[in-house]
């Protein structure tokens, strides 16, 4: 490989990170453990075409998180959430898959039309005012910045990388677009929306936003006044990527139209738009003998998720925990009254790591399957099993045994998140989880089929998602493969 003396490797950035501001997490052991021939098999099994060129700019990448249960001796996969372009753990994938994701992002950026606008690449973190969390995968976002600079440079002849501090100071070159990297919370605090719905950040018109949760938070912060005809959101299906209720409704429609052998016929769920509705729904479901989970929209790291598994829990305790969830999401995400609407759904008793000689034996897990656009097709990469921090020895009474969030596990236990994950394109990992190659092939095909169904809905029924009619973009050009 020819050495470019002006490039710095991810290894060097990670090694220097404590000196640059805060420590970054090295996911190289996971990416290196993915077996390329297995990854390619899953990619081939899952590849499906888009409906047409009009769908190309609707989507870049979205990871699906799924619980695994045992039903009549067979594995069943339950959608937990559809994530989006705020993906953490990109480097869990093989180098080839990472390059394909970045190529998709670069291609999507060629459709922008303002040579002086700014695209906001928003990252999670700093949710709590009292103990702000810094993003330990920030180096992955640098790959996104470079891919977007490449796409915008092809479109306009140049593009600048910047950040919120520089924009506040009025620094930067005008007459060319910019990609600004920053935390969701900081961007939201500095953004303004004019009477015509245009979004501005310190004198620069915001022409694009990357991170599904950020897009949803921005609309909520400004009472849905943002003009989505002028602001491009990558992905365009961000509503499904930030609201679990929307994702579940779409999944139910998909499996009804196209039953999948590994997916349940229905995700039982309800939307609660107010505190009163949330309390009443939880109490009603518990009275029917259901075990219940509540999930806020537009949040991360498991914030606000509560489990109601004890049918004997008192009314006062149930209400107190609901109020605690609402208060936490209001504080962390600046959403008045809490991150409503909430999704109420039925608790699924997930499978556990069964290998007796493994340090995570007895811990519950979920799977992450990354779906991304590759040219005019969709393909899937099953990246990791996310394992709960603690064993579930007490029947769900320990919350940390029920939350399979890698960032939360790593941050709270002060160890690497790699300690709580297994690479899925790996024969040994599949054996530890009791999964066959055929199980995961079927899951990958279902994952791309589901995302294609979501895109079909965005394409043909944009009003369903609060979007303007899809317009045919002009000036789109091909972009060389990202490095």
Give a description of the structure.
By secondary structure, this protein is α+β, with helices and mostly antiparallel strands. The chain folds into two domains: 31-84 and 239-458, no CATH class; 85-234, 3-Layer(aba) Sandwich (Rossmann fold). Helices cover 36% and strands 19% of the residues. It contains 15 helices and 17 strands. Strands 4, 5, 6, 7, 8, 9 and 10 form a seven-stranded mixed sheet that branches. A hairpin with a 5-residue loop joins strand 7 (192-193) and strand 8. The longest helix has 24 residues, at 437-460. It is globular and about 65 Å long. The termini are close together. Mean pLDDT is 89; it is low at 409-413 and 472-483.
The helicity comes to: 25-40%
Major sheet summary line: 7 strands, mixed
How many structurally independent domains? 2
Q: Quickly give the structural class.
A: alpha+beta
Tags for this model:
single chain, 7-stranded mixed β-sheet, 36% helix, 6-stranded antiparallel β-sheet, 15 helices, 2 domains, alpha+beta, 19% strand, Rossmann fold, disordered C terminus, 483 residues, globular
